[in-house]
Amino acid sequence: MKPEAKSKLIWTLGLVCVVSVAVGLSAPAGGNVTIKGSDTMLQLGQRWAETFMGQNPGVTIQVTGGGSGVGIAALINGSTDICEASRQIKPAEIDKLKERFNSPGVEIPVARDGLSVYLNEENPVGELSLEQLKKIYTGVVTNWKDVGGPDARIIMYGRENSSGTYSFFKDNVLEGKDFAAQTQTLPGTAAVVNAVAKDKLGIGYGGAAYAKGVKDAKVKKDEKSPAFAPTLENVKSGQYPLSRNLFWYLRNKPTGDLKKLVDFVLSDAGQEIVSKVGYFPLK
Amino acid sequence: MKKTLLSLLILVCVASFASAQSGSDSTNLTPQEIKDRLDGVADNLTTLNTDVNALKALKISGYLQFRYEYNDSSKSTDTLIKGSAVNRNANNFYIRRGRIKFTFQPGQTSKYVIYFDASRNTVSIKEAYVELAHKFKNQAFALTAGQFNIPFGYEIEYSSSKRDFPERSLAENNLFKGERDRGINLTYTAPKYLQANIGVLQGYGIDNATFTWFDPTKQKDVVARAKAKFGKFDLGLSGYWGKTYTPSVAAVAGSSSWYDANGNKQIDSNEVTTTAPKSEVAGFERDKDRYGIDGQAYLDFLPIGGTGVRGEYFKARDYNKDAKAVVHEQGWYLWLSQNIGKKFGAAVRYDYWDPNTRSNQNDATGTWSLAAHYFYDGNVRITAAYDIPLKLAGNSTLTKYSGDVKDNRFTLQFQFVI
Question: Is B298 within 8 Å of A100 when comparing Cβ atoms?
Answer without folding.
Answer: no
